[in-house]
Amino acid sequence: MQNFVTGIMMLALTAGLYIIYLRNNRSKLKKAIQKGSKNLIQNSIRIFAIFVIIGILQNFLSKEAVSNFLIRFSGLKGVFAGAVTGAIMMGPVATGYPIGKYLLENGGTVALASSFLASWVMVGVISIPLELKNFGKRFTITRNLFAFISVIIIALIMEVLL
Amino acid sequence: MKKFLEEYIIESIICIIAIILIIFNPHKVTMGLTYAVNMYVNLFLIIVSVAFLSGFISEAISPDTIGKIIGKESGWKGILIGAIFGTFMVGPTYVFYSLFRNLIDKGAGINVIATTIGAWAIKVQWIPFAIVLLGWKFVFIFNLLMLLSAIASGFVVAFFSKKEY
Predict the structure, then answer these.
(1) Based on the domain organization, do B97 and B161 belong to the same domain?
(2) Of A121, A118, A53, nearest to A80 (Cα)?
(3) Which end of chain B has a smaller Cβ tally under 10 Å, C or N?
């Protein structure tokens, strides 16, 4: 529902911008629509491929199986295991929180739950090809590497503070 | 066909993997494909908007305008705009990558875009739900640290990838 409402708002904004700024300039309007259509086809193929991987991964690796695997690790090993698993699994924020709760309730450390949750939303192994295509090697590698290091630091700080 | 395969090499590999997996476990792969279709339909309006907004920006907005608002020189104002946008927007970040690339081409700061992507990890609208599950202390510290990391990420990524643009 939230996606639908945001989608409608974004679509209205886009249509409004086209009408206000491009209605009197036919050539720019045509070019913008052509580029938009090309973007739509390219993005759809790439984004759908990511959805396919996430869908298949979620069905082959259930949340319970992943959680039960992670609980076996503690200390620094736990932080790394959580960070690596979160980076591979990757998903919406809302689905990550229940997994974090499950980990904490079943004996997982705060650092393990934090590293898994942070990596789940900050590092995107599955979307790296798309990131590379759009932003290039340096941007993608630096951003994901920095995010991964941040995940470890966040997890350690969380463990100390909570 | 050859051009298509060159352009979409990763996507073609994913397609082949899905076909191989479907032989071994058709049920799970079908469920995965159903998830993918549902996600696409669910985000369709956002995907369409992002595509046409990119088209609009590349034709109608001048680099000067983008530069002033979220350019390298926009300083903390640009970073703040990026962080707020990333925090409040819905849908996966990668749906917006082509739009972000377009904005960089039009003069947006790499630091602003990297901060936006980093801040995407925080979803203000889901915080009440997170507090119910994990407690306010966990959620507050966790999100604060992610916000700081997103801002730091902007500076680090901009520093290391300036040669690329």
Answers:
(1) yes
(2) A118
(3) N
Question: Do residue B34 and residue B88 come from a single domain?
Answer: no
What pLDDT, in 10s, does the model give residues A28-41?
A: 999 999 999 999 99
Residue B31 shares a structural domain with residue B81: no
**B138/B109 same-domain check:** yes
Listed residues B60, B75, B99: the one ending a domain: B60
What's the pLDDT band for A22 if we cut at 50, 70, 90? Answer: confident
Interface contacts (A, B; CB < 8 Å): 254
Domain identity same for B12 and B89: no
Radius of gyration of chain A (CA): 20
Q: What is the secondary structure of B79-95 as a DSSP string? A: HHHHHHHHHH--S-GGG
* Residue A98 in tokens: 């229940």
Query: Do B56 and A157 lie within an 8 Å CB cutoff?
Result: no
Q: Of A110, A141, A146, A148, which to mutate for an interface test with B (greatest number of B Cβ within 10 Å)? A: A146
Phi then psi dihedrals of residue A119, to 5 deg = -70, -35
Q: Across-strand partners of B108?
A: B71
Domain end point (choices B17, B37, B60): B60
pLDDT tier at B79 (50, 70, 90 boundaries)?
very high
Q: Which of A34, A138, A158 sits opposite B164 (nearest CB)?
A: A138
Say yes or no: B91 and B156 in one domain: yes
Query: For B109-134, what is each residue's pLDDT tens digit?
Result: 999 999 999 999 998 888 999 999 99
How far lies B116's CA from each of A24, B1, B143, B150, B162, in Å?
A: 33, 36, 14, 7, 17
Q: Are residues B161 and B88 in the same domain?
A: yes
User: Containing domain of residue B34, as a range?
Assistant: 1-60
Mean pLDDT, chain B, integer: 91
Query: What was the ipTM of the complex prediction?
Result: 0.88
Task: Report chain A residues whose CB lies below 8 A from the CB of B53.
Answer: 10, 13-14, 17, 36
Structural domain tally of chain B?
A: 2
Interchain CB distance below 8 Å, B121 and A54: no
